[in-house]
Amino acid sequence: MKLDSKIPSGPMAEKWSRHKQDSKLINPKNKRKYSIIVVGSGLAGAAAAASLSELGYKVKCFCFQDSPRRAHSIAAQGGINAAKNYQNDGDSVHRLFYDTVKGGDFRAREANVHRLAEVSVNIIDQCVAQGVPFAREYGGGLANRSFGGAQVSRTFYARGQTGQQLLLGAYSALSKEIARGGVEMHTRTEMLDLVVADGETKGIITRNLVTGKVEAHAADTVLLCTGGYGNVFFLSTNAMGCNVTATWRAHRRGATFANPCYTQIHPTCIPVSGDYQSKLTLMSESLRNDGRVWVPKKAEDCGKLASQIPEADRDYFLERKYPSFGNLAPRDISSRAAKECCDEGRGVGPGGRGVYLDFSEAINEFSEKVIKERYGNLFDMYERITGESAYKQPMRIYPAVHYTMGGLWVDYNLMSNLSGLHVLGEANFSDHGANRLGASALMQGLADGYFVIPTTVANYLVTQKPGAVTTEHPAFKQALEDANGRISQLLGVKGKRTVDSFHRELGLLVWDKCGMGRSRAGLEEALRRIPEIRAEFWENVVVPGSGSVANPELEKAGRVADFMEFAELLCRDALDREESCGGHFREEHQFPDGEAKRDDENFCYVSAYEYSGDLSKPILHKEPLTFEEVHLTVRSYK
Amino acid sequence: MALLNLHLKVWRQTGNQPGHFQDIEAPEIPDHASFLEMMDIVNERLIRAGQDPVAFDHDCREGICGMCSMTINGMAHGPERGTTTCQLHMRKFRTGDTIWVEPFRARAFPVVKDLMVDRSAFDRIMKAGGYVSVRTGSAPEANEIPIGKDVADAAMDAAACIGCGACVASCKNASAMLYVSAKVGQLNTLPQGHAEKDRRTLAMVRQMDAEGFGNCTNQYECEAACPKEISVRWIAKLNRDYAVASVKEVVGAGRQQSQSGD
After folding, report:
1. Would the CB atoms of B142 and A128 count as touching at under 8 Å?
2. Per-residue pLDDT tens digits for A43-56
3. β-strand partners of B10
4. Which of B59, B67, B139 sits opposite A125 (nearest CB)?
5. For residue A241, what is the nearest residue in chain B, using CA coordinates?
6. Residue in B closest to A386 by C-alpha
7. Mind listing the pLDDT tens digit for each residue in B12-25?
């Protein structure tokens, strides 16, 4: 298999314009003949479904939630980047491009990132026109704030709920198209499998989560906008329903999975408090604009109240280690620094797994009222969960799994190696390399959905005769049979352990061995244990009820079964990548000061895995990364 | 961390079959757990005992997706102000408490199973006019539309609605006026939404009526139950916008008739 990234020729800044010129067109009358399936209704999915419907394509959109407005994009708090340079602080498309490539530790594809930076400005225009209530200045212009990994202020925001507002904008566009009859929306419907007929992706198998009905849907192309796989760790900031099933099933049908080991651990989350815990809650990175991160200098001070530790005995470790970026050092770097302090026994709070995020200086400087206006909802959320007020004492935070940079491999058109399968947003691998900068996920989801796929999807569709494959094709019959078989199998085990208990066991193992620090010995152990847990799952899981009604346990069981398989690929990739880069930190590969040691000579490539039929033997394909614009350097934020 | 021993009375129902309360004992619940984590613990125990777990909606568990929907001790999302069910923590309860857990009840929200209800009526109201008709790619430069901070802040207050339906569940008339007024209000407040203001207002209110939601009788339970504390002043604005749009519709229709008829 040859992975052709289809990067257009020409200078970096002209590639996207040229590609738009060179892309195929389908006349309006013919567009109506083509049908497109969109799986997922988050920023990427809703934006794509609405925009493609506006162009005239017949769209079917699917989400497992009860309304498309609830997809997990909604939970993003801090903001969205765009190279508008409204602050006159020297920002530009090139600088956003450069920051993103560097932030990704030089493991992203340059051409994709440049395109992302280019369309970032159009996204803000689009969202404002839809009525997204971004924060504004008194003069009526849009306001900005700073985010990690950048020295300019280019982040647009809507209080602490930017994701919700952007998603509501996309959902309103989607609603408009549903009303017009251009989009057929299927809520409470989960994708169980992908259908590939004669080498072309032509549909999906779904289960209606209310009636239990398993159905086949055919179309001329399929777009997966199904988010990331962070819930493989069990505890993460992802929503409970986030899962890997759509992308994993596509992988099993032939799509290569790229860079699964690039996972993002977000530095500022509320620490774990007990084994009953179901999820972790993020405290937005924007808090680090005003909050200062510290731990006691001496381990014996950790038991004291923060207020009893004098200034001289506090270690503001991010400001100390990374003076030019300070508390706004990128996520991977801040997370590792926090972990190091806790490993040295200087962590605070129960179990010593926490560091302080302190607002007292900002409150003194600006007043409590100003801080409340900026972050009130986050402080309230913190108090509800912990019972503590961050106005009176510092927040306690600890890193947690937040985002996954890896995903299905795609070319410049966002098409997988599997012909006719397009992958957008967090579900693909393309733009963030080994680490994503804050406020860039919303940007990518909307860029893919509003501005990239409406142009590039035609390049595939022109090669297809509309409606050529229907659900009568034997591939659909086979996939339906497979999906029904899996459901019966899950219900038929009738063992003793709950789905959650298996998910928790798997998650703890993966967090322990393939979380913030990874080593050969740990990964090898994980690779021994995962197949054992998986085997026990299929012998001893209990899924109550039946498949023909609403059955949340059955839904969970199917998702966990796929995590059990995916986890092995995640650890295998982490073992194979003998370097440290971004969110992937191999303990064997570090500089004496603990910074990540990249190996450009041997690992400057995208790892794309093909499913071989044997989970323990994926086939590795390499897409070499070449850098024309940005010079490969040691990534420093000092 | 303290452990609580609780007695639950949980609504059990399958589709449109008659439902009933089931007594479920919930001993040794950590007070740091969230209400939904308490339900997780209860469900794990039910499954291990070979019983049917309680079905409920939930997703983000951080108070923003609007999926969770429980009426706890008669209050939508429970006793804490400005808090969704998923953000309610067990430290707000005492050991020995009896807790009644029901779905969001309204004729327009039919029960799917146990505590899960069908809120698709909200999506249909949005479909009727909850948008600005702007095509992707046709937007002007963002800063070409100056919007005062106070206007943007007001629109944001309305936009904070998470579409959970607590306003409907808390209302004795099962009115959706707070939801609809927040949705209409956000767009009617902003200059981008002005061109379609009247059309939007009429269409969304009419769809709300068609879905079987009740009328508003100014009890303001909705505001008290709203996890995002959306103000009832949006209802007042909706009533004004609706009155204006209705008059314009009648006058406009008359004018059209007088222009075309002879």
Report:
1. yes
2. 999 999 999 999 99
3. B22, B101
4. B139
5. B59
6. B32
7. 999 889 999 999 99
